[in-house]
Amino acid sequence: MKIVSTKENLQVLHEDNHIIVVNKRVGDIVQGDKTGDKPLSEVVKEYIKEKYNKPGEVFLGVVHRLDRPTTGIVVFARTSKALTRLNELFSNRETKKTYWAVVKNKPPKTEDTLVHYLKRNEKNNTSKAHLKEVPGSKKASLDYTIIKELDHYFALEINLHTGRHHQIRAQLAAIGCPIKGDLKYGFDRSNPDGGIHLHARKLVFIHPVNKETLEITAPTPKDVIWNLI
Questions:
Q1: Confidence (pTM)
Q2: Which of the residues 46, 73, 137, 171 has an alpha carbon 20 to 30 A from that of 118?
């Protein structure tokens, strides 16, 4: 059973006048979509409104997103100035994103750089990884390292060089290592909470206003596998 975020259980990792960073749970959608489910952005607005006793509408800018079954770091802007600068940072890839993933099959190498060309399929909301460029594809690159071997699984640390749709999920599936629980990319069974074992673990970026370097780490969800890592 997934426990989505509410203003009461929201896990805030960093908060100041310009930004707020939270640890997303399985099942949270970052921004409203066609499901009509309450997005994390609205939960954060409610939290700010209540905490600071703000009258009227609370400003909150969505800077980036995580897939619904994924957990970890999400950054929101609390001012329009911060939103503009954060959008530039993320679009220019001036951030360092580190993910943790759990896979069942051992990757071919202990550490490696993966380069594929991802083509998105809008109909079934997936991306397919190709070794060579195909029409409509975009280059995707990441590096991974095996950080822990468990009895039946392998934990990987992943650094993204590009930010493509379902990039980590598609690229790991392409080397025969779909993420635990990720039925969409070939894992054999789902996780009880409907999530996948992919976690946005660490984010390093320059604060959009005070220009200091921020390094934020998100605790992993509490479950048997993550607890072993």
A1: 0.95
A2: 73
